[in-house]
From TrEMBL:
The chain crosses the membrane at residues 7-30, 36-54. Keywords: Membrane, Transmembrane, Transmembrane helix. It comes from Microbacterium esteraromaticum. The keyword Transmembrane applies. This is Flagellar biosynthesis protein FlhA.
Length: 59
């Protein structure tokens, strides 16, 4: 094995490690965004449900 082959193998391994790390971060951020969106939707539904419940109870 010559020197260029060793550097190529190390470069490929480094690229895979960095890509794995970046994809991990990307999925964590996307997961957080999806959770926040779901919480917002559920909060709006609960808010309007409670508002309707208390409005009809006051009549």
């Amino acid at each position: 094995m010559n020197k260029n082959t060793v550097w190529t193998i190390l470069g490929v391994i480094g690229a895979v490690v960095i890509a794995w790390w970046l994809v991990n971060i990307l999925f964590a951020v996307l997961g957080l965004i999806v959770k926040l969106a779901l919480v917002a939707v559920v909060a709006v539904v609960v808010y309007f449900s409670l508002r309707a419940f208390f409005r009809s109870g006051a009549d």
